[in-house]
Design goal:
Radius of gyration: 42 Å
Helix content: 25-40%
Distance between the termini: 143 Å
Number of helices: 13
């Protein structure tokens, strides 16, 4: 028993909302509180009420009001939730119950919490607050009074979006279109980082501090329609650090894979060390060839048996051989020469277009073909400028020669590129040249070939630099057909130019490198080195540029060529040693060339 005043029978009794205190009225001018939290319970000091009390009513504990703020973080990083602006009538909130919308919940006594979302997407988070009186959403009714007047305002809900850790802009684009990749808080420690489209490396970049930004990525020209993944990693093929999706949509006009696969200026700069290492190795092998194996075998065999090589072809395909002395009018020679050269450039453009894996009957292939056609024509003419000027200055006739055997080599190079997945690939063997009639001596021939190769080097380098702004314009959302033609034209001038230096400087009897090496070996080495470094650099893109990660495919052309030339040379030497020359003559005394040849006019002396 607990004494509660002068009357043993209370007139009214009520329990506080938190159940810790009972209040009794006994018709006196005071109310007696009873502490229910102790055992035995005890009466506390009476509370004066000023008049006789016959009943007690306690106001129920009112619900708090929840307020929520969210600071979204990227997927994989913390998102901050702040409910500190929530209020309660009794002045205190003791519990925060969180639902983060991804199946994860938490209960805290503090109003600020952080949560990491595993993937990007839209989420809806909820916080439910509880006051010190124990009131939240629910209402408590004792049978006489409401203890906790719960309310829905004790809960706050907010929808928000968690972005991918990487941001790709725009999130959709057509093949050959420029996109940018950005992460403002990159935590990776490797430098540089590789950027991959699906599983294929397309670029590499070095973050600045914690900012990863590359504004000039290009969707591969052969990318299929639909969703693809762009990822960032520390190696070309290792695990992903970050990734983001991009959707490839259809476009009638866009750059081909050939153009997109060409290295940028930054990529080319990074891969120069690796390209230089392979270039030096290839130069050493080339020097070995020029020193006697297997070049001199092939040279001697070719010179001694030239007519024996060409005679069977001449008998079977007579239209491929014409005599230089055949009389023709000026108009016929001009028309035939122009037609032959255009046909050569068109065939070369068609062969080169097959370097693109997505070659087909579409506009993209048409722009690629036209660009290749123009580029091959330009680079073929540029290399012949010194020869033409020399003929005009010496009042001699100019003879256009297209080596039909080179077309077979070109097809083989393209087939090899496609077979080993070499991008942008290479094509060599398309040879159209101007010869001076009568023939100049070996010294003049070497000097003219060296000057022609120098012209090719200058023009090819200029084409590479000019292709940079053209490429940026051609990778916009709506490029014009003119840009889509100009870009591959500049690229093929660059690639074919350096390929002609890399392969054309081989000191073999049917290549200009033989004459340049005989005329001046230092210049031959310089031209060979420049061509090899530029050409191998294209094959390595988008490699790391470090000597430890140089792609093996850069060695394929050299090693294959070395093995093939050695086998052919040795086989030819053995064959003709056991089959000595018999009098096969010169087919009636007229000199012929193993080529489809057309005389062009010069100023006769």
């Amino acid at each position: 028993m607990v004494p509660i005043g002068s009357i043993s029978q209370p007139d009214g009794i009520a329990i506080s909302t938190n159940g810790s205190t009972a209040y009794t009225a006994d018709a006196s001018t005071s109310v007696t509180p009873i502490d229910l939290t102790v055992s035995p319970v005890r009466a506390e000091a009476s509370i004066a009420v000023g008049a006789a009390s016959f009943g007690i009513a306690i106001e129920s504990d009112q619900a708090p009001t929840a307020r929520l703020q969210v600071i979204p973080g990227a997927a994989g990083r913390a998102t901050t939730f702040n409910a500190s602006r929530s209020t309660s009538p009794d002045g205190k909130i003791i519990r925060y119950r969180w639902n983060f919308g991804d199946g994860t919940t938490a209960v805290t006594r503090t109003p600020v919490v952080r949560h990491v979302y595993a993937s990007a997407g839209s989420y809806q988070a909820t916080v439910t607050v509880t006051s010190a009186g124990g009131t939240s959403l629910a209402t408590t009714y004792t049978g006489q009074t409401v203890s906790n007047n719960g309310s829905a305002r004790a809960r706050a809900t907010l929808s928000f979006h968690v972005a991918a850790l990487l941001q790709v802009t725009p999130p959709t684009g057509s093949p050959g279109m420029t996109i940018s990749l950005h992460d403002a808080a990159f935590t990776g420690t490797c430098r540089p980082v590789y950027i991959r489209f699906d599983h294929n490396p397309i670029a590499q970049t070095s973050p600045s501090g914690q900012v990863l930004n590359d504004a000039h990525l290009v969707i591969p020209g052969n990318a299929s329609l639909g969703r693809h993944r762009i990822s960032v990693g520390c190696t070309a093929t290792g695990a992903n650090l970050l990734s983001v999706d991009v959707r490839v949509v259809n476009a009638k006009n866009h750059l081909s894979e050939f153009s997109v696969a060409m290295p940028t200026l930054g990529q080319f700069g990074r891969i120069l060390p690796g390209a230089g290492a392979i270039g030096i190795l290839m130069l050493l092998l080339g020097r070995l060839i020029s020193a006697g194996f297997p070049s001199e075998w092939l040279n001697r065999t070719y010179e001694e048996n030239r007519e024996r090589f060409s005679a069977p072809l001449r008998r079977r395909f007579p239209r491929l051989f014409v005599t230089r002395g055949a009389p023709r009018s000026l108009a016929r020679r001009l028309a035939a020469g122009t037609g032959l050269f255009l046909a050569f450039a068109a065939f070369g453009g068609l062969v080169n277009s097959f370097l693109d894996p997505s070659f087909g009957l579409n506009r993209t292939t048409l722009w690629l073909f036209l660009g290749q056609f123009i580029g091959i024509g330009v680079i073929s003419l540029i290399g012949q400028v010194p020869t033409v000027l020399s003929a005009l200055r010496g009042h001699r006739q100019i003879h256009l020669q297209v080596l039909t055997g080179g077309l077979i080599i070109a097809v083989a190079c393209v087939a090899t590129s496609r077979a080993i997945g070499l991008s942008p690939g290479y094509c060599y063997g398309l040879i159209a040249g101007f010869l001076i009639v009568p023939e100049h001596d070996d010294k003049d021939r070497g000097r003219l070939h060296a000057l022609g190769s120098l012209c090719v080097l200058v023009v090819s380098s200029a084409a590479f630099l000019l292709a940079i702004p053209v490429f940026h314009a051609a990778t916009s959302a709506s490029p014009s057909p003119a840009l889509l033609i100009l870009d591959p034209a500049l690229n093929v001038v660059f690639l074919a130019g350096f390929a002609s230096l890399a392969f054309g400087m081989f000191p073999l009897p049917f290549l200009p490198g033989r004459h340049v090496a005989k005329w001046n070996e230092t210049i031959w080495l310089a031209l060979s080195g420049a061509g090899l470094i530029g050409f191998v650099g294209v094959l390595l893109a988008p490699g790391s540029g470090s000597n430890g990660e140089v792609h093996h495919v850069g060695l394929v052309p050299m090693l294959v060529a070395f093995a093939v030339f050695g086998t052919i040379s040795l086989s030819a030497l053995i064959y003709f040693h056991y089959h000595p020359v018999e009098n096969e003559g010169r087919d009636g005394g007229l000199e012929v060339e193993a080529a489809r040849s057309i005389d062009l006019p010069g100023a006769d002396a």
